[in-house]
Task: structure prediction
Amino acid sequence: MSKIIVVTGASSGIGALSARALARAGHTVYAGMRDTGGRNAPQVEAAAAYAREHGADLRSVELDVSSQESVDAAIASVVAEHGRLDVVVHNAGHMALGPAEAFTPEQLAQLYDTNAIGTQRVNRAALPHLRAQRDGLLVWVSSSSVRGGTPPYLAPYFAAKAAMDSLAVSYAAELARFGIDTTIIVPGAFTAGTNHFPHSGHPADTAVEAAYEERYAGLSDQVGRKLAEITPPDADVAKVAEELARVVDLPKGERPFRVHIDPADDGGWLVAEVGDRIRAEFLRRIDLADLLTPARG
Result:
């Protein structure tokens, strides 16, 4: 059955690829992005061209996860047009690269806002509709860094993604009795095919950054270079989008709770497997096993 889907952060990278993959699968997809009439106007036209070329129902919608007003307006417009909303893909995110101490508290707050708090704004706009329907799906695009190998100089991003992942886990149980399903998609460190590394933020405190450079000279370049080296040459970030689209098309209650797509294999899948098993066992121990799957009625 064709679904009405909103994807956040869909101007480029995994978000854009996922929106296209979902539209190719026959769904009506809204690619959410900021500044559709300005900076992202070329991306809006690219999405429209893709839709024409592939006969797909891919649309763009102004959606800035840092603004509740923007999020509310975007979700309201989608629901007004179709009378429902079936899937929300929490993809919007931003990376920052540099020594943790050199980032100001305000910079960390901004990263948390984009990567974690933005999902809360979207949920508060979308979930009333999904709860009323007693049906729906939240897909959260996490990161293998949440539980896998964590190279230095990426702490603010890793911490923000961990916060988002933790929200996803708690929301899964709290939404199950409303019939709302949850899947957490976990990409690894794809160094090509996204704008994460090229567009990453940098510390505001350049003096502290310089002090670290004395002891960790060239570390930022080393991290990027080594991540690229351990990633197989055939690694394609489009596989993340393809897997996301596959999960959306699975029947309710049969979707995996967490899916890893990590060609470099940083080990995050193993830690997540243990953590998710412990979560499930604990919910069973306190007689809340029904929260492990979405209610069907």
Remarks:
- The mean pLDDT is 95.
- The chain is about 50% helix and 15% strand.
